Amino acid sequence: MKHSITLNVNGDTYNLAVDPWRTLNEVLREDLNLTGTKFGCGSGDCGACTVMLDGRAVSSCLTLAVEADGKEILTVEGLAPSGEKLHPIQEAFIEKGAIQCGFCTPGMEIAALDLLRRNPGPKEDQIREALAGNLCRCTGYAKIVEAVQDAADKMKSNQS
Predict the structure, then answer these.
(1) What domains can be seen in the chain, in order of their start residue?
(2) Rounded to whole angstroms, what are the CA distances from 137 to 68, 74, 75, 130?
(3) At 4, is the secondary structure helix, strand, or coil?
(4) Cα 1 from Cα 17, distance rounded (Å)
(5) Is 113 exposed, middle or buried (0-12, 13-18, 19+ CB in 10 A)?
(6) Among the listed residues 49, 40, 2, 48, the one whose alpha carbon sits nearest the alpha carbon of residue 21
(7) pLDDT, position 111
């Protein structure tokens, strides 16, 4: 039996009927065509599927879509909704060469956003700890950490 849910994704509202066992990741990718959120391990270990749910980073592969009913969801597509101006985190990832194959990038960027909202001036060890749940297949961690540090500076500058 399908459940009627309302998802608020990247500022848009979607009314859907979903099977109770479908994950948020499946609904985002298959029903809403928001494929920036990746499906990696399916067990919450790799972080490729990280999205913000009511302002908190979660693994969308472990979150049932019905659990997200009525909540605010931010995917990587929502970081730069107009598609014209990138979010400072996205700019920093490009400028610092933190994108290799790109598979981990959406989850890393959302995890970085979660960190920077809680701690606008993290030290390197705090960045590494915050991103520990996100795996990079290409082992580009040094450049990713540099990008998060740069994004923190950019976001502070934008607030002044």
Answers:
(1) 3-77 (3.10.20.30), 88-159 (1.10.150.120)
(2) 29, 24, 21, 17
(3) strand
(4) 9
(5) buried
(6) 2
(7) 98
For the chain (160 residues), the mean pLDDT of every run of 10, in chain order, is 97 98 98 96 95 98 98 97 90 95 95 97 97 91 96 86
Where would I find the H helices in the chain? 24-26, 88-95, 105-118, 124-130, 141-159
DSSP letter for each residue of 115-128: HHHH-SS--HHHHH
Q: What pairs with residue 50 in β-bridges? A: 59
Instruction: Quote the CA–CA distance of 101 and 122 in Å, as a whole number.
Output: 26
CB burial of residue 127 (10 Å; 0-12, 13-18, 19+): buried
Residue 140 token pair: 């580009």
Q: What's the confidence (pLDDT) of residue 160?
A: 55
Q: Which secondary structure element, helix H or strand E, spans residue 13, and what is its range?
A: strand 12-18
Look up residue 11 and give its two tokens.
């500022």
Computed on alpha carbons and rounded to an integer, the radius of gyration of the chain in Å comes to 15
114: number of Cβ within 10 Å:
20
Q: What is the pLDDT of residue 108?
A: 97
